[in-house]
Amino acid sequence: MNNYTNDNTARRYKADISIFGTTLIHLRNPYIVAWWSAAFPGFGHMMLCKYPRGYALFIWEVVVNIKAHVNLAMIYSFQGNISMAKEVLDTRWLLMYIPVYLFAIWNSYRTTVDLNKIFILADLEDHRFNSFSIGPTGINYLDKRNPIASIMWSLFIPGLGHLYIHRILTAIFIIFWVVVFFYQSHALEAVSLLFLGKVKEASAALNPEWLLFLPSHYGFAAFDSYMDTIENNKLYEKEQRRYLTENYQDTGFQILKGLKVK
């Protein structure tokens, strides 16, 4: 049940509140979105709420990266061992990896530019949208939340910040993959050994090829949940302002611009 059902009279809507999350469009920097696609294909599209496309590119990145040994080659190149980096690369997979990687960057940039134009038009149209949704599987509503709390929970475990702001689909996806990355990289095993003072054993236990996925994962989870919290707060304030204006403000009320009130 929603407190408002769209009647499809508007050409564009700014937001939709469902039990699965809050989907909204707002102004974004295309270069930042493209940068996240370059850091990890799929992240840029997930920021734009293009979930199927983002998930497909993310899974493609993981599978083809591991098969082509891109992360392993990067590690060797960081160490200055260029010949070993060339040797470990599997060109059968690498030649498939490059076009999709470039597509993810280009398409996320192009989509951001388009959505920015759509947001400006939708903001001018300023049509109503639902702000409360309840059903057998959950409840979601617009509310103000703390952006710092989103970052904090994301740094504990990526995905928790998205759960905090009710981005359920993104949260489940991120949490699933962080479990995969932790398990395959043996990162938690290495941390346990490090606490015991066994530095060499901790280094030997790590699988660097899978470990290299984690920094991008943590960074994106913290950044995206933080930005979404801020934008959700703006959306809440605007919806609240509309409600108070329509129900409590006198119809004859006017703001006199440029005049001093004594």
Describe the structure.
The chain has 262 residues and is mainly alpha-helical. It is built from 13 helices and 4 strands. The strands form 2 sheets. The chain has a two-stranded antiparallel ribbon with strand order 1-2. Strands 3-4 form a two-stranded antiparallel ribbon. Strand 3 and strand 4 form a beta hairpin. Helix 10 runs antiparallel to helix 11. The protein starts with 14 loop residues before the first strand and ends in a 14-residue tail after the last helix. The model has no long low-confidence stretch (mean pLDDT 90).
Précis, in short:
The protein is mainly α. The chain is built from 13 helices and four strands.
Strand content: 5-15%
Q: What is the radius of gyration computed over CA atoms, rounded to a whole number of angstroms?
A: 23 Å
How are the strands of the biggest sheet laid out side by side? Answer: 1-2
| pLDDT < 50 runs, ≥5 residues | none
SS-based class = mainly alpha
Keywords:
262 residues; two-stranded antiparallel ribbon; mainly alpha
Topology:
Blueprint: E1 15-18, E2 21-24, H1 30-39, H2 43-47, H3 51-68, H4 70-78, H5 82-88, H6 91-125, E3 132-135, E4 138-141, H7 147-156, H8 160-164, H9 168-185, H10 187-195, H11 199-205, H12 208-211, H13 213-248
Antiparallel strand pairs: 1-2, 3-4
Helix pairs in contact: 1-6, 3-6, 4-5, 7-13, 9-13, 10-11
